[in-house]
Amino acid sequence: MANWLVKTEPSAYSLDDLEREGTGVWDGVRNPVALRNLRAMQVGDRVLIYHSGGRKGPPAVVGLARVVKAVYPDPKADDPRWVVVDLGFVGRLRRPVALSEIKAAGEFETSALVRQGRLSVVAVTDAQWKRVMELAVAQ
DNA sequence: GCCAACGTTGGC
DNA sequence: GCCAACGTTGGC
Fold it and tell me: Which nucleotide in the DNA or RNA is closest to residue A58, CA to C1'?
């Protein structure tokens, strides 16, 4: 069972949208490394939903989801490289965990989230997951 | 809104 | 196959 973090631009598709739909098709991923991560996702994997910087506050992890359907070709795209997964809404964090806090946490020193800011699908270790959960209930 | 970092495209 | 030019992402 693996953990992931996926970024979304909240003005395009937000955690609220995922909650409303219950299950969402995670499409639009074009970066080759991000696509490789999508292909590695298994049903049941845990996912952190991250809002990238918009007008609604700093970039932050805001919610939780689960992979409910493993990778398949994007039905709306004509290029077989463009694949998608389905994510199911699980919940919202008690408190968003800002990127600045994540950067300050040692667990993420080697993470692509910090090292390669533009990667939109990132693997998350168990230790990193645990730290985000701790930060989400901290004051 | 700016710009750094990174990907992609296309001329050669 | 190289690399300059251009486009995009995303933090600030």
Answer: C11
Could you say which residues 46-85 of protein chain A have a Cβ atom less than 7 A away from any atom in strand C?
52-53, 58-59
Q: Can you tell me which residue has its alpha carbon closest to the C1' of nucleotide C12?
A: A53
pLDDT per residue as tens, chain A (139 positions): 999 999 999 989 999 999 999 999 999 999 999 999 999 999 999 999 999 976 678 999 999 999 999 999 998 887 888 999 999 999 999 999 999 999 999 999 999 999 988 999 999 999 999 999 999 998 7
Please give the Cα distance from A70 to A51 (Å, whole number).
22
Query: What letter would DSSP give residue A76?
Result: T
A119 touches strand C (CB under 7 A): yes
Pick left, alpha or beta for residue A28 (phi over 0 → left; psi -120 to 50 → alpha; otherwise beta).
left
Question: Measured between alpha carbons, how far is residue A129 from residues A1, A36, A69, A88, A107 in Å?
Answer: 12, 20, 21, 18, 9
Rounded to two decimals, what is the model's pTM?
0.94
Strands A23-26 and A60-73: unpaired
